[in-house]
Amino acid sequence: TRGVGYSRAMRYGGVDDAYFEAENRRAVCHVMIETPGALRDVDAVASLETVDGLFIGPADLSMTRGRGAFRFSAEDAADFRAVAASAHRAGKALGLPTPSRAAYDLAVEEEAAYVTISDDLSALRAGFTRALGMTTRGSE
To answer: Measured in whole angstroms, how far is the alpha carbon of residue 132 from the centre of its chain?
Structure first.
């Protein structure tokens, strides 16, 4: 469910049923697989009419599967492939996180509809690390 607080998208005014029908056609739902239960039930999740695609929450899935910090291990790759297979069977879009070349190559092989190459905090950290590195003598 979602709220119907009038917002900028609605021009801060009332809308009719046609607006909601159009938004329901336009909006998509991609479910993030982050737990052993979600991975176990991924086929059932993918089969839901309201689900348009699947994505993996890599750090959460690695932690909840007892593997510790995500590092794209062989087990992580197997989880990626399981989610990809489910998305393909259901005819749903597949999104995969690709924090390494190996993860990116797997995403290409699995024909992911989209990939993420970073997250906001990792990108900020990399940018600030580079910027702070310029303040050290001998840096570019």
So the answer is: 30
- In one-letter notation, the amino acid at residue 78 is A
> Which tokens is 140 given?
């570019």
Q: Measure the CA–CA gap between 84 and 88, rounded to whole angstroms.
A: 6
Secondary structure of 79-104 as H, E, C letters: HHHHHHHHHHHHCCEEEEECCCHHHH
* Cβ count near 75 (within 10 Å): 13
pLDDT tens figures, 26-85: 889 999 999 999 999 999 999 999 999 999 999 999 999 999 999 999 999 999 999 999
- Strand, helix or coil at 40? helix
Cα–Cα distance measured from residue 138 to residue 66, given in angstroms and rounded to the nearest whole number:
43
The single residue listed with the structure tokens 């994505």 is 55
DSSP 93: E
Distance CA 77, CA 62 (A): 11
